[in-house]
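User: Quick sanity check before I run a bigger batch. Here is a single chain. Can you write out its predicted 3D structure?
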Amino acid sequence: MTAASPVIRVFEPALCCNTGVCGPDLDQALVTFTADLEHLQGLGVDIQRHNLANDPAAFATDSAVRDFLRVAGSAGLPLTLVDGITVLTGGYPSRARLLELAGRSDVAAPTTAPTTAATPEPAAPAHRDLGLSAVSSGGCCGGGTSAAEQPVSSSCCGGATPSAAVGTTTAGACC
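Assistant: Done. Predicted structure follows.
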């Protein structure tokens, strides 16, 4: 009898669209992660991504995600879970790491690193800044500002606007 395949779930901050790969200012980490995710899905790996803007129910129904958001807030996303266990926060796993988490040692990751790779992963557990400062980047749309500044116009969302919470911003309606 073989062990069940791991279930990998990636919970992302609010993005303009399902992948965040939209607008003229693409985030290379999102482009790379989208390609990596599609590659693993093509191998039959049980991996899914959930965007806070488009799939809030996935965040609300998973207790590990709810607990994480209570502590770190959405600034700590993305959050990667394997079988409900947190394995990475604040960045996207590389293709090699995803293959490892999926138990797919039979598939080789690319032998040469792309010139612009996904967010690097720490080599050893270390203190990680979860970004709980008063500035928000605005996700794929950019345009984040502090509460004291005027919002900067964004490429695909029409700009960020100050939210009701002190010191945060939210992206305008888009996509």
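The first helix runs from residue 28 to 42.

User: Great, the batch can go ahead then.
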